[in-house]
Amino acid sequence: MDADNDHMRTRVKTVRTALDIVEALKSLDGATTTEVATHLDMPKSSVYNHLQTLEHDGYVVKNDQTYELGLRFLDLGAFARQKKGKLTDVAQPELESVAEETGELVNLLVEENGRGIFLLREQGPQSVNIDSYTGQCVHLHTTALGKTVLAHLPAERRAEIIDRHGLPEKTENTITDRDELEDALEEIRNEGVAYDLEERIKGLRCVAIPIFRDDRISGAISVSGPNSRMDDQRIQTEVLPKLRHAANIIELNQTYS
Questions:
Q1: What is the domain count for the chain?
Q2: For the chain, does the N or the C end have fewer beta carbons within 10 angstroms?
Q3: Each residue's pLDDT tens digit, 191-210
Q4: What are phi and psi of 114, to 5 degrees?
């Protein structure tokens, strides 16, 4: 029995190592075997063996001596996104409309495993280019979208997420104190809207509202733009009404279509 347990632990460790290598290639935007080994503080021979297996199965590609993530991950991501199909299908035309009308970047985020996942992004004619992309994972407390989701999760689930992922600082404006965050989340629940005041990206302001299904939070939508365009008056008179209209349609279509 002990031998079986040892074998299981070895296999689990092997999987963990492979995933760490995949994450390293993403973080480094491609790397050589030596660079990955240095980044992870692992033996070069072990990293090489894992990279060879990942390459053989199509999960990484090798250009000269540099390994990069392969497009097979795109297939997996597209399949996973399809599992959220109804929300994606009903939300996309509404996000496109808000992006066109405001000219800004519009996002849909959902929570999975305690992290925020950008499920959709639509760019308006004047939208800024930032580091977010479809499928990107973020800490929930760093974005208006994520705070919206956190605010409407059960208290026990919220505590589990914070215990697991912490409250790391992204900018000097990020909320990193648990009590301060809880106060902010209570205000979000009361007001029905959340703001990101340069809490993840300097110079970027964001406003988000929740999407519900059967009285449970299923995600959040937002408009993001530079401080120079996203002033309080514009948010209240133009952006929020458009977001609320879109959320209303998404919720109805999610339930009845």
A1: 2
A2: N
A3: 999 999 999 999 999 999 99
A4: 80, 5
